[in-house]
Write a structure and sequence with these properties.
heterodimer, A: mainly alpha, 2 domains, flat, B: 295 residues, mainly alpha, 14 helices, globular
Chain lengths: 305, 295
């Protein structure tokens, strides 16, 4: 064995335990790795699989066989019902109005907070002034602040501005709350743009906005996509502000889902509720499916910093 | 005049956000702290009332249950997510085929709201419809899995769901860490004949310690803020069994009209967060300085 060692070491370019050892050992470790991964994948996919399948099954079948099982009936009508006619919060227009509420909340709040964050990030990385680092540090504190600390002040502020129980009020909250996050993200990205580039432009007589438009913005798509994805997902999935500062038909979809699936109904309609839950989870899931790469990038960039 | 404006453009552009953040971070916080020390009940009342609301809070059984739950939940949630995340990261690091697919399957829960997560797991944990019914249908009729209805065990169902939601996240960060470990170091150990397990324990894990600590801190933050997951999965029940501080604060502020005591609870949540984040901030600045000194 000892004679063979240098030969093996030459062969391994990178650490790759699965391709070392005897054939038998290799097979065994392959089985362990893929077996464990499959087990975990099953644990992760179980909930999603269950609600997808249940959204197509008959209620009679679900009450007989439980939620976990392969469908013996198939119908799209539960989706239609969940979307348009199911009763939530006393009105029978399905989940659709709440879905639109969430859209009207998440889209403007995402765009506004990302735009402001980009400009702030640009100032804080390329136009530093005395004390700007301290100001930046204070701004980022907002990322960590627990929502409970600001609930009462927000209730008062929204009341004073006449925005209680409006989508505009929720947009305002998410913009202010998102600001620290988007600023942090953009600033940390813009720091890597070489200062020489900005200096050269300034010598050529370009001003603040011109440099932003001509140099910084064209370099920004990667960070803007990441920020937009994270802001949208976070705002769409928020429940705390939604449930406190809106009620009735003005609620975002997360709050409506709680009202729908935990409401005091005598008979649960798991198929319609599954469809409603899926509709409520759809936008972030689609973003994840199609923008997974950016999702991942934001995670590893932002979280560790 | 024009010159002065263009000279201060950066400051002018930044100022609205600065004002907004300062109001949000400092004024709002000070406001809540002050409320917690006031005589307020249903409506804000700014006369000084001392620390009686803090005393009332800590004498309240519901709050002590909530805090105990938070400790139990945080420790199991963080260690569970970290253990599974690390296992998954090491497994995926073995140059498995279809890495991107495995990774997306394991990370997708992060894109799903706690409301949806909690709702679906509530159905799965419910004995009459979920896992128990399924196993009994398979023929094991004596099988019982009714933790979600059991006062002593319901909190563990929240842990299982929380770990489901967070371990993929831990995996991605840890995987990025594993990939950054110097290959030369590992190769040298391999040439010396070290076993795979030894290489992981002695070389790989110690060198990704900063990332492990960062993951723990982020997860602790999630745990302390936990609200929607519990609301959706158990509503804090059965009885008071799965109450957490965030839920109780919400109840005090918006259901019972005891805003001063609610504010006191919010301050306690802030202190819990500070207890995690302040040491971390000190540690990481110390760590950075040492790294900078070494190179």
């Amino acid at each position: 064995m000892s004679a063979a060692r240098p030969a093996i070491a030459d062969r391994i370019a990178i650490f790759d335990p699965l391709s070392t050892g005897t054939t038998w050992q290799r097979r065994r470790s392959l089985a362990v790795v893929y077996g464990l991964l499959s087990l975990f994948a099953a644990y992760y996919l179980l909930p999603l699989g269950v609600i997808v399948l249940n959204s197509f099954r008959d209620m009679a079948e679900i009450s007989r066989a439980g939620l976990i099982g392969l469908p013996h009936s198939f119908s799209l009508q539960h989706w239609a019902k969940a979307w348009g006619t199911f009763c939530v919060n006393g009105a029978c227009n399905g989940i659709a109005p709440f879905f639109y509420n969430s859209l009207w909340m998440a889209i403007p709040a995402t765009i506004i907070s990302t735009a402001i964050g980009a400009i702030n990030g640009y100032v804080l990385s390329k136009w530093r002034f005395r004390g700007s680092e301290t100001l930046f540090a204070c701004m980022t504190l907002g990322v960590f602040l627990p929502g409970q600390m600001v609930l009462l002040p927000w209730a008062w502020t929204l009341g004073t501005l006449g925005l209680t129980n409006t989508i505009a009020g929720l947009v305002l909250i998410h913009c202010v709350q998102g600001l620290s996050f988007t600023t942090l993200f953009c600033r940390n990205y813009y720091v890597s743009i070489p200062d020489a580039l900005i200096q050269a432009a300034r010598i050529d007589g370009a001003g603040f906005w011109r440099i932003f438009r001509k140099i910084v913005l064209p370099l920004s798509p990667p960070i803007l996509i990441v920020t937009v994805i994270w802001q949208f997902t976070g705002i769409w999935n928020d429940f705390l502000f939604g449930v406190i500062f809106s009620s009735g038909r003005n609620q975002p979809v997360t709050a409506a889902l709680i009202a729908l699936t935990a409401g005091g109904m005598s008979v649960r309609q798991y198929n319609v509720e599954s469809a409603a839950v899926l509709i409520g989870a759809m936008p972030p899931l689609l973003i994840y499916l199609f923008g997974g790469k950016f999702f991942m990038r934001g995670l590893t960039q932002g979280a560790v910093k | 005049m024009r010159d002065a404006v263009s000279r201060f453009t950066p400051q002018i552009v930044l100022s609205p956000s600065l004002i907004a953040s300062f109001v949000y971070v400092f004024l709002f916080c000070a406001w809540t702290v002050w409320l917690s020390l006031s005589d307020s009940t249903l409506l804000p009342d700014f006369s000084y009332g001392g620390i009686k609301h803090y005393l009332a809070l800590w004498q309240n059984r519901r709050w002590t249950i909530a805090y105990t739950n938070l400790f139990l939940f945080s420790s199991l949630y963080v260690s569970g997510s970290l253990a599974i995340g690390l296992t998954l990261a090491v497994l995926i690091d073995q140059r498995v085929r279809g890495e991107a697919i495995w990774r997306s399957v394991l990370l997708y829960p992060l894109a799903i709201s706690f409301v949806v997560t909690g709702t679906v797991w509530r159905w799965l944990f419910s004995p009459s419809t979920g896992i128990q019914a399924f196993v009994r249908d398979l023929g094991w009729t004596g099988f019982t899995f009714d933790w979600i209805l059991d006062r002593d065990r319901a909190i563990y169902t929240i842990v299982i769901t929380g770990v489901w939601h967070a371990s993929g996240f831990a995996m991605v960060l840890l995987l990025a860490g594993l990939r950054s470990v110097e290959q030369d170091l590992i190769k040298a150990a391999q040439i010396d004949g070290a076993s795979m397990r030894r290489i992981y324990w002695k070389i790989v894990l110690p060198s990704i310690r900063p990332i492990i600590i960062a993951v723990v801190v982020i997860l602790l933050q999630f745990a302390i803020k936990t609200f929607d997951l519990v609301v959706a999965q158990t509503g804090g029940g059965p009885g008071l069994a799965t109450n957490v501080p965030a839920i109780y604060v919400y109840d005090l502020m918006f259901q019972r009209g005891q805003i001063a005591e609610g504010a006191a609870g919010a301050v306690m949540i802030l202190l819990a967060l500070a207890a995690v984040l302040v040491p971390y901030a000190i540690w990481s600045s110390y760590h950075e300085r040492r790294e900078a000194g070494n190179s």
